[in-house]
Amino acid sequence: MKKLVFIGSAIAILTACSSVPSTQLQPLESYQVEWIGERPLIDRSMLTLTLGDNNQASGLAGCNNWMAKYQLSGNGLRLDNIATTRKLCAPALMEQEQRFLAALATVQRWEFAEHQQLLLWPEQGAAIKLWSIEQP
Q1: Across-strand partners of 108?
Q2: Mean per-residue pLDDT for 5-14?
Q3: Could you tell me if residue 17 is inside a domain?
Q4: Is the pLDDT of residue 118 over 70?
Q5: CA 12, CA 16: separation in Å to the nearest integer?
Q6: Residue 74, CB half-sphere, CA atoms under 13 Å: how many?
Q7: Residue 2 has pLDDT above 60, yes or no
Q8: Is residue 4 part of a domain?
Q9: What range defines the domain where residue 76 resides?
Q10: Rounded CA gap, 18 and 13, in Å?
Q11: CATH number, domain at 120?
């Protein structure tokens, strides 16, 4: 009986420890930007991406909210018709926002790095690096 309890406990522990992170980009999951290409974000700025289940992407671009249509096909990702609200913020924040939106407009594919960071690869240059935002 002790062996059976031990084996059952071991299986439960191994199952809990072996939860494999998603390797698919999931609609309704939100991500926070850490880097845009080769540059980290300005301290305390917040840039986000959420892919809706109706092929609508949205998020915060640092100062303004943004939205776009997206197409997801395997590891391919394309964002079209990116639009934003029109608030003004500090010049440095506005410059970062423009870099982010320009990079989003050229994204062609996505992948998860080995440490589960989402990488959005533009047509040229380094990836936009994002972390999953935990949903309550």
Answers
A1: none
A2: 43
A3: no
A4: yes
A5: 6
A6: 2
A7: no
A8: no
A9: 25-132
A10: 9
A11: 2.40.128.270
